[in-house]
């Protein structure tokens, strides 16, 4: 048997960790696996779940990766992202509510990773600076920097490279006329850390997706003044609580006065751009670089994973999709990628790969709204599951559809609902306090609460 492939994995967030986990599973089963070196620029694993108080640059002067805020709770039910081989009940030994705070989800992820003993594969505080594909030897040269010692390390060779550096870290920051005359604070949601920073202030949010929705609610929950959200394409359309309203996009700013497309104006103290993120791979040459807007199926990736424009099927991306499914999608994609890299799954010829991509892009074009989007991503997940012969049913579309309806019914109380796990059969319990009034989101209180108020 030929030796193991030598794989460079970039990033130890949930996707990168899923690759290490799946590779370890092959190893434990005595099957051919890969020799993986994972480079992680932060000092801990977890990616976005590794909370940071920093904004802008990190302690080494590199782009600060983390953009979660202190008071963030899951915006989807945990039953939609639960690993079938490691349920929430397995981890906590009891039922907990369906919408956990950030720390609780991070604890759950770490429970699975710790069990697999894969931490040793990660070189922390080590950033990938450059990757090249060597055509003559059909492999890659990877250059990294040891950030702790400010030292460039000797280049290393790998048979495969896997990019798992995420795509929700580098702000998309549009400009608006007159914004330089604004006398308050202007920031991107990536740098939002606490709703309480805006107590008593009138807030303008630009954007109409998850960050705008959740930051509007966070600000009001933590005592901000009035919040106006404004949209480019379409309003979110929720039945907002008192103090939140939606308007069409702003057209210009003059001092603290904001002008909107519908001819109205408003005075605000703070502007928060909830305008999403750009795909940013400063360490990749153009021939290997994915260029896309946020999409459920970025073009150029076979099965959403294998880069078609360079690297001879040995250059892979994980979790570049927009996300309804998150942890379970990362995991099945990682399992599929692992099977390909280790030779357990054979790729079809290039023509078939191209026509498979074209088939998905055609379906993508026909989507019309969130229920279609959920069905599309479910099909994507199930397609990968079928290819690797996954024994679990990963389809949680019905739960996602219910979640969308719960949000439509009441954006304030949707996090107070409980869902039932398809894998453990256990129902979540009702949180002791409604989310909108719950200020203690510590792991201990959340997990060990004893009564429903
Ligand atoms: P990331 O988590 O971004 O991890 C990428 C890793 O790559 C990081 O550790 C980073 O340090 C490392 N890295 C980057 N560049 C380099 C380099 N050059 N060299 C070495 N290492 C590098 N999902 C949910 O399921 N539920 C939620 O409630 C939820 N909330 C979210 C809230 C916010 C504000 C955001 C932005 C996202 C949220 N998400 C949520 C989605 C989130 O994208 C995923 O949960 C998950 O973190 C994606 O994992 P990842 O490993 O692909 O990327
Ligand atoms: P996003 O989903 O990509 O949305 C970007 C928004 O910005 C869209 O509404 C888009 O409008 C708007 N936009 C982009 N460019 C604009 C411009 N030039 N002018 C006006 N509007 C513009 O990004 P996101 O909302 O930051 O969400 C990213 C991820 O974070 C998601 O996975 C989400 O689940 C996660 N998240 C989770 C939580 C939580 O509670 N757990 C909280 C926040 C975020 P168009 O529709 O017009 O394109």
Care to describe what's here?
Helix 1 crosses helix 5, helix 5 runs parallel beside helix 7 (370-388) and helix 7 (370-388) runs antiparallel to helix 8 (397-409). The chain has helices at 14-28, 88-92, 102-116, 210-221, 327-341, 350-365, 370-388, 397-409, 443-448, and strands at 6-10, 35-39, 122-123, 126-134, 139-146, 151-152, 156-158, 160-163, 170-171, 185-188, 203-206, 227-231, 244-248, 250-254, 257-260, 265-267, 270-273, 277-278, 301-302, 306-307, 315-317. 26% of the residues lie in helices and 18% in strands. Strand 14 and strand 15 form a beta hairpin. The strands form 6 sheets. Strands 3-2-1-8-21 form a 5-stranded parallel beta sheet, with helices on one face. A 5-stranded parallel beta sheet has the order 10-17-11-12-13, with helices on one face. Strands 4, 5, 6 and 7 form a 4-stranded antiparallel beta sheet that branches. The protein is an alpha/beta fold and 453 residues long. The structure holds flavin-adenine dinucleotide (FAD) and NADP nicotinamide-adenine-dinucleotide phosphate. Flavin-adenine dinucleotide is lined by residues 10-16, 39-42, 47-49, 65, 67-68, 72, 74-76, 81, 127-128, 164-166, 168-169, 283, 319, 323, 326.
């Amino acid at each position: 048997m030929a030796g193991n492939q030598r794989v460079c994995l970039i990033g130890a967030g949930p996707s990168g960790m899923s690759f290490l986990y799946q590779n370890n599973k092959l190893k434990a089963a005595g099957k051919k696996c890969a020799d993986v070196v994972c480079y992680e620029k932060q000092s801990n694993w977890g990616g976005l779940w590794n909370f940071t108080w920093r904004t802008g640059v990190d302690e080494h002067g590199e782009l600060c990766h983390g953009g979660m805020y202190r008071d963030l709770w899951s915006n989807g039910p945990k039953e939609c992202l639960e690993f079938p081989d490691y349920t929430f009940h397995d981890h906590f030994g009891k039922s907990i509510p369906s919408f956990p705070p950030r720390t609780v989800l991070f604890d759950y992820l770490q429970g699975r990773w710790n069990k697999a003993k894969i931490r040793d594969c990660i070189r922390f505080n080590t950033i990938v600076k450059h990757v090249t594909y060597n055509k003559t030897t059909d492999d890659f040269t990877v250059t990294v920097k040891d950030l702790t010692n400010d030292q460039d390390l000797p280049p290393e060779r790998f048979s495969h490279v896997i990019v798992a550096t995420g795509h929700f870290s580098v702000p998309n920051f549009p400009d608006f006329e007159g914004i330089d005359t604004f006398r308050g604070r202007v920031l991107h949601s990536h740098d939002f850390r606490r709703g309480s920073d805006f107590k008593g202030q009138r807030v303008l949010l630009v954007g109409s997706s998850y960050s705008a929705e959740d930051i509007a609610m966070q600000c009001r929950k933590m005592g901000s003044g009035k919040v106006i959200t404004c949209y480019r394409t379409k309003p979110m359309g929720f039945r907002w609580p008192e103090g939140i309203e939606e308007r069409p996009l702003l057209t210009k700013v003059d001092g603290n006065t904001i002008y909107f497309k519908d001819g109205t104006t408003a005075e605000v103290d703070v502007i928060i751009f909830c305008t999403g993120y750009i795909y940013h791979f400063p360490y990749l040459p153009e021939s290997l670089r994915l260029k896309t807007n946020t999409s459920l199926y970025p073009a150029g990736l076979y099965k959403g994973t294998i880069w078609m424009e360079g690297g001879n099927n040995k250059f892979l991306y994980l979790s570049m999709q927009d996300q309804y499914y998150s942890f379970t999608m990362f995991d099945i994609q990682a399992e599929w990628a692992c099977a390909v890299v280790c030779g357990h799954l054979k790729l079809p010829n290039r023509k078939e790969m191209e026509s498979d991509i074209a088939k998905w892009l055609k379906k993508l074009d026909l989507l019309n709204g969130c229920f279609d989007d959920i069905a599309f991503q479910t099909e994507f997940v199930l397609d990968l599951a079928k290819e690797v012969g996954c024994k679990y049913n990963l389809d949680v579309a019905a739960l996602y559809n219910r979640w969308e309806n719960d949000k439509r019914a009441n954006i304030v109380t949707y996090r107070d609902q409980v869902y039932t796990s398809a894998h453990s059969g256990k129902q979540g319990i009702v949180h002791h306090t409604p989310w909108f009034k719950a200020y203690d989101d510590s792991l201990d209180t959340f997990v060990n609460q004893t009564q429903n108020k």
